[in-house]
Write a structure and sequence with these properties.
The chain is α+β, with helices and mostly antiparallel strands. The chain has helices spanning 62-71, 78-84, 92-105, 122-127, 139-151, 165-178, 199-208, 213-224, 232-241, 275-285, 291-301, 319-322, and strands at residues 16-23, 26-38, 44-48, 54-56, 185-187, 193-198, 244-248, 252-256, 262-267, 305-307, 310-317. The longest helix is centred in the N-terminal third of the chain and has 14 residues, at 92-105. It is globular and about 60 Å long.
Length: 325
């Protein structure tokens, strides 16, 4: 394991333009950040901006959290495994899976320590009358955390403590797969510890999933149950392109292509609206994804620019990304 080249957070000197939004022939907004694509062996294929500075991995680390649970002997299969890695939409279908995980642990909803929240799914949120812990998008992960504690005879009341055996095991997995020591530990939106990584380390952690038996099973399971993982846009990308992709809060994004190449990026303003387009376009620029199929998915998953109900512009990736490098 080697230390990152820099232990400072990603700053304005390490970013480039990743995407622009055009309205009526004029660029109205610009998304700046850093991104990197690595091959299956971890070698760098493309880099935009500085990938050696620190970011909080946020929900892109959920793949490594779920992998840790498998390594700890927790039996998770199918939709339950995907919910353990999910930022789910909070529909009845999602909640039913979370409840099954809690039932296996012999625990109730009151054991969840994620904060109460409304569902992310718009229709389900409209029907909700109050914030609940189980409809918070990380409740599947928290339920799986609790199941791991029960299976390993660890305390369930302190499962979010960074010094808890579960969180120490997760930290060790993050360090192993990124190839970097964790420099800083923060508190994620759901209350769990969140670790700093470099974008290079984050991309390499995704590429290494396929080299690990449990990681490969996780990847295959996500592809089989894409609906459960994240947003409908992410599900479309997984179903149509075979990638395994994940948004994280504050503009972090990762994706693993079928050939083992992986991308990691951070939009410095924290916005996620350009993340899928930028990440997929970068993978396509290296030949990891079919260019025509990728363009179709980007068009289907990217926010439309409307004026008076008609399309008057578009969000598009920066010219430097569309090139082959």
């Amino acid at each position: 394991m080697t230390a990152p080249e820099s232990t400072s957070p990603l700053g304005t000197e390490g970013i480039v333009e990743l995407a622009v939004l055009e309205r009526s022939g004029m660029i109205e907004s610009r998304h700046l950040g850093a991104a990197i694509v690595v091959a299956a062996d971890g070698s760098v294929l493309r880099e935009l901006g500085d990938s050696s500075e620190l970011v909080f991995g946020r929900s892109t680390l959920k793949f490594l959290q779920a992998l840790t649970l498998l390594r700890l002997g927790v039996r998770l299969d199918g939709e339950q495994l995907v919910l353990a890695a999910a930022s789910h939409q909070g529909t009845d279908r999602h909640i039913a899976v979370v409840e099954l995980i809690l039932e296996r642990a012999g625990l109730g909803r009151e054991s969840l320590q994620c904060p109460p929240d409304f569902p992310l799914d718009a229709a389900t949120r409209h029907q909700a009358t109050t914030r609940r812990r189980i409809t918070m998008n990380c409740s599947g992960k928290h339920a799986a955390f609790l199941l791991a504690c029960v299976r390993n005879d660890w305390p369930t009341s302190s499962y979010l403590d960074p010094a808890h055996p579960l969180q120490l095991a997760i930290r060790a997995t993050v360090e192993e797969f990124t190839g970097e020591p964790v420099e800083r530990v923060g508190v994620d939106g759901c209350g769990a510890p969140v670790f700093t990584v470099t974008l290079l380390g984050l991309a390499r952690s995704m590429a290494r999933l396929l080299d690990d038996p449990d990681g490969a099973r996780l990847v295959a399971t996500v592809r089989a149950h894409a609906w459960a993982l994240d947003s409908p846009a992410i599900a479309t990308a997984i179903d149509e392109l075979g990638v395994v992709a994940k948004n994280g809060a504050e503009g972090v994004f990762v994706a693993l292509a079928p050939n083992g190449s992986a991308v990691a990026l951070k939009v410095i303003d924290g916005s996620t609206r350009a993340s899928i387009a930028v990440g997929l376009a970068l993978l396509a620029s290296t030949g990891a994804l079919d260019a025509e199929a990728t363009a179709s998915v980007i068009a289907a998953t990217t926010e439309q620019v409307l004026g008076g109900g008609a399309r008057v512009g578009a969000l598009r990736v920066a010219d430097a990304i569309a090139s082959s490098g």
